[in-house]
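hi got a favour to ask and not much time before my train. below you get a single protein, a line of residues and a line of whole numbers that encode the local backbone shape. could you go over both lines and see whether the tokens make sense for that sequence. a few lines back from you is plenty, here it is:
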Amino acid sequence: MSVKTVIGAVTVLLGLTALAEPGLSVPRYAARYGQRCTLCHVDPSGGGQRTLYAVQYIVPMELSLQRLTAEEIAGIDPVLGKNLTVGLDLRTIYHASDPPRPGIDNFLQMQSAFYLSFDFARRFSAHVNRSQSGTLDVFGLAHVLPLDGHLRVGRFTPAYGWRFADHTVYTRELLGWFAQGRTDVGLEAAVNPGRFTFSAALTNGSRGAAADADERLAVTGQGIVRANWRELGAGLGGSIWSNHSATGERFDRGPFGYLTFGPATWLGEAAWSTNDPPGPGSERTSWVASQELSWRVLQGFDLRATYDFFDPDLDRESGTRDRIAAGLDLLPYPFLNLQTMVRRERYEGAPRGAPSAPEAVGDDTTWFELQVHLLY
């Protein structure tokens, strides 16, 4: 790792002393409730298996359009034994596009993930997340640090920005935080002093690969702070990811945050991504940003609008890419989620057929998406 990268990383991390909180798989819930993701997920980074409290109370009583009776809630039991719990996420999606996208349009089983957790002591646990894409999260957690902190070791997704469930969000897809590429092997430490959360991880840097290709380590850091003034809630944080490998040096850094007031919730994230492969004059810095605005019509029913933007090279005319979308998010019954979105993706300023892979080239596309999500 170069001196420049270390200085940049330290600068960002020092700036986080006034920032900080990892996002949930549905980050607007984190914003609305002002809570850490461990309230709803066993993974400190958010996403994956839900806690017993989330399964038996938050989802059926706080998030669902239909609230269950006490007798129905008593029948919800993901506990297989004294120390063993299970969970799942099943997502089926239908796409229709103009112009058509072969291989993507029609029905698609987007996610089939199964979770298993084993609590073998009061502060120690092990977790397995296996999905159809081949993604494997398998890590141990030790809640032994002060300030309600933890240590984590194994293969996991380091905390970086908002962990949106939609992996096509630009700040997830274009920065590599999707499917197999989101996990890495290493060690993580985190603390939660009051309204703040800080985490840091040392990992192989070969995200998604079974083994590392070199002896160098990647560094991930994140922090967020949240505050509330009457009906207004706000959070501001920042993330870094740095890796120096045989193919070059990469340094991602940027802010993320939220604002919530009454039924409205705004989430935003941006990042500069600097790639410096071997050879003079090859360094390139791109810019990527994602936003989501949601309006809670009533419990279990949200209107959503999103906007993503990508510039692959800030120093030259390489074209840009953006996407605007709007739709509905409905949880009519606990553990059944229905979503519809209409998206429009546009490419500006780049010649079609440009030979350079980073260029923003493609055909303007409009598509409709319907998603059925079973969760437990």
In short: The two ends are 41 Å apart (CA to CA). The first helix runs from residue 3 to 15. The helical segments are 3-15, 27-33, 52-63, 70-74, 170-173.
